[in-house]
Each structure stands twice: as structure tokens, then as C-alpha cells.
UniProtKB/TrEMBL annotation:
Cofactor(s) required, per the database record: heme
Name used for this protein in its record: Cytochrome P450
GO biological process entries: organic acid metabolic process; xenobiotic metabolic process
Residues the record lists as binding heme: C449
GO molecular-function term, one example from the UniProt record: iron ion binding
Keyword check for Metal-binding: yes
Amino acid sequence: MFLELLSCIGLTTVLMCLLVRLVTILQGSNKTNPHPLPPSPGIALPILGHLYLLETNPRRQFTLWGQRHGPLLSLYLGNRLAVVLYGFDTIKEAFVKHADIFSDRPKTFVMQALGKDKGFVTSGPSWRAQRKVTISILQELGLGTSVMEEKVQEEISRFLDNIDTFHGQAFNPRQLTMHSVSNIICALVFGSGFRHDDPEIARYTSLFGDQLSLLEGTVILNFLPILRMLPGDLFGLQKTLRIAAQIENALIKKQLELRKKDIEAEDIKDVPDFLTGYIREIRAHKAADVNTSPINEENLVAVVANLFAAGTETTSTTICWALLYLVRHPEVTDRCFQEMVEHVGLDRRPTYKDRQQLKYMEATVMEVQRISSITPFSLHHTASRDIVFRDYLIPKGTIIMPSLDSILLSSEIWGDPLNFRPGRFLDATGQSLVKREEFVPFCIGRRSCLGEALAKMELFLFLSTMIQKYHFRLPEGAPLPTLEDRFGLSCTPLPYKLCFIPRAHI
Ligand code: HEM
């Protein structure tokens, strides 16, 4: 594909770039330079950089490069220099010890077009303010507590009803789980403004899914600027922007205006939802006469969109991986079920408090997150200034890619990383969880996932409830679903179908 692209580009441009790249390479390989760039996997071509080396699913390739060149690897993604960090110590040193330098997000063409430098796509004081306010409102809303659990449990009831409409027939659980976890974000963000039977809201939340898939196609525009000149909308950028504007105007801003009216009418003091909490913060900042405060409506809209984007795809992908591993490992499913029978019984649904007894279940969720490693490079960071890190130069603006695969799938850390073995997270008695700091599916440092508490609650409750209620069966004659993944914003399982047979029917 890249060779075809090359042929579209004028010869003069190629030669000019070749010259520039040659100079860069010579500079980079200058042995007298006391601090060179980290080693790279091969020659960087003009325009393409190292993109020509990448396979469609480059995970294994990056792992091999890490073993050969790590713990730091530099490569050009088109015209952008990127450094991949390998191993727990390296990533911790960068994101925790040097957090001041490694906590920014890179400015990319697509994110700028979409985010207009708002919400969580930003860096510096604006991002810090969004993170602080968001965390404090989510805590007020009871993130990780029984208040939040009520919302999750309500949605699980609807999820089970939806599964039952298939009457044991095979279906791909992806869409249902996406729908349910985005309803949970809706309930969190819009509170009483969100009605489950509102078809308009359902339409816009499903558009979020479309937008995320479209976004994947646009990523190449970040690295090969020349492609932006091609006529038409080959990479779907215009379509992505249109959907983003639709979601922003017809869903988020509309709900925002409704909420503002409610607040004026009722003079609401406590915080029933995220919108109300953020509006209250905006007013507090205005009252304090902080005119330039980043706590404003534009950022509110962006933060809400970010919560949807960050909180739906990831959680639903993990649930789909969990179901896939559970059907491949019936002995694990059986043990989770036996534990459920012993500690919870079958007369009531499991609660989040039950995880104190359901240790094997909790270990199973952790093992799914470890082995599926759904965001192998986390989200990209950038260096906010030049730094010499482990004797290599990392220039300001370099894209930083932490290889979470190099931790979650490391033989040195886990011994047998490719075996699905929840017991690795339990002590010898099998009664207590072993917490490992190398368990990093939410990454580490100042940028680590701020939805971690909600995600853990959702994963535990959705999966334990499904195990309590159903046998997971493959359709008659279907082979075991493959462990191959589809590389994208998060790494998803290839589509598969399952039958959910109520245990009571067997
Ligand atoms: C299994 C589910 C989830 C996984 C595996 C996951 C993983 C991650 C990862 C790897 C990052 C990037 C951290 C970094 O850049 O260093 C991240 C960021 C983020 N996540 Fe999650 N996440 C999940 C669920 C959620 C949920 C449910 C929410 C919201 C309620 C959420 C909100 C966010 C936000 C807002 C950020 C950006 C933080 C920032 O830039 O400061 N995530 N997540």
C-alpha cells in the first residue's frame, strides 16, 4: 500500500525529502554525539519514515524490536519521531519519576481537528484543571461506591433482558455490551436527563461507536501530511468530523441547555450528574472572576465526549475478551461459578461487595485484562522538552509510546504470560489476591486512566452476573474463537458468536 502511495507523490518531492532525511540519519548516527537518539529498527525512508516496516497488526513486531533493541526504540512514523518505551522500570521512570516531562499529549492533526485543544486531549494547566474537576465530580457522584453500583446494576438488568431476547440463539455480544456500557456513561453524565427509552439518545450514543471506528482510518493523516491533499474523503476525516459535530450539538449541548434550565428553576445544590457538577464549577469560577479559566462550556462538551470515547470501547472490548477466554476455558468458568454458589448462592445477583469473597472471580477479571492487553501502547504521550533519558536524547515533541505489552505479556514478570491462568493473581491458599505493581492495564503516572474504579466495577459485575446466570456455548459445530486480535484504537477480538443458555434450563 505504501509503495502505491509513493508513486502518487512527485519525484522532486521525494528527492528533496530524501536529502533532508539523509542529513537527519547522518546526524542521528553521528558517533561523536554524546547522546544519540535511541536505536531504530532500520532505515527511515523519505516521507514514510519506518511506516513501510509495519505490518497490519504490528504488535508482535514491536515486541521483537523491543527484545532486540529495547528498552528504548526510536522510529519515524512518517514525519514524526516516536520513541517506544519497554519494560516496567523504564515506563515507571518516565511516567512517575519524570512525570513533569512525560505527561503531555502530542498535538496531532486529527486530534486538533476534532478536539480543538479541549478536554483531555490537551496538556498543561488546562488538562490539569479538567482532570482535577472531573475526578472531584466523579467522586462526588460516588465513583466506585454503592451509589454508582446502583446505576451499573440497573443497566445489567436491562442487559440480561436483552440477552434473553435471543432465547439461547448465537449472537455476537459486542453490540449489546457497547450499548450497555455507553448507557452507564449516559446515566453518569446526564443523570435524570437520560431516559433509556429515548430513541434519539440511543441513536447518538451508537454514533460514538461509529466515530471510534472511523477515527482509526484517519490516524495515518497524522503521520503522512501529504495524504491530506488527496481529493475526496478517502480516510473518512470529514465524516468523522460531521459525526463529532452531530454528537456535540444534538446530544451533549442539547442536554447541557436542558440542565442549565433545570438548575435555574430548582436551584440544585447537590450533584445528581456530571453535567450539573461541571456547570456548578463553571459558575464558581465565574463568581471568583477567573475569566480565563479553562473550566468553561467548551471544555465541558469536550470532556463529556472524552468520557464516552474512553469509557465505552475499552470496557466493552474487555468484556468481549473475557467471554472469549471463558468459553475457551470452561474449567475457569466452572470454578468462578462454584465460588459463586458457595459465597453468593443463586437467589440474588452478585454485588460489588461480594468481591471480598469472590477472589477467584476477581483474579479472573485481572487475568483477562492482563492477557488481552487491549491498549498495547496506552495513549500516546509526548516529551514537553528535550531530555537525556537513559543516555539517549529524546527531543521535545517526540511521541512517546509506552509498550504495555512489554509489561503485561513479559515472560520475566509472569513466567508463562501466554497461558490464561487466573491463579497467578492468588496466593498459595487461593484466598487472597496478590497485587502486582506490574499489573498496568490502566497505565501509570499522572495520565493514568481516571475511569479505573468504574471500569473495575463494571467488569466484575457484568462478568460475575453472566457467569451466575448462563452457560456460554459455541454454536453447533463452530470452532473455538481465535485469540488473534484486530489492531486499532483498542485491540479487539475478531468477531465471534456465543449462545447464552440460562443455567436454570439445563
Ligand atoms: C477496561 C476499561 C478501561 C481501560 C483498559 C482503560 C485504559 C486507559 C488507558 C491505558 C489510558 C491512557 C493512560 C495514559 O495515557 O497514560 C486511559 C485514559 C483515560 N481513561 Fe480509561 N480505560 C478504561 C475505562 C475507562 C472508563 C470507564 C472511563 C470513564 C469513565 C475512562 C476514562 C479515561 C480518561 C478520561 C482518560 C484520559 C486521562 C487523561 O488524559 O488524563 N476509562 N484509560
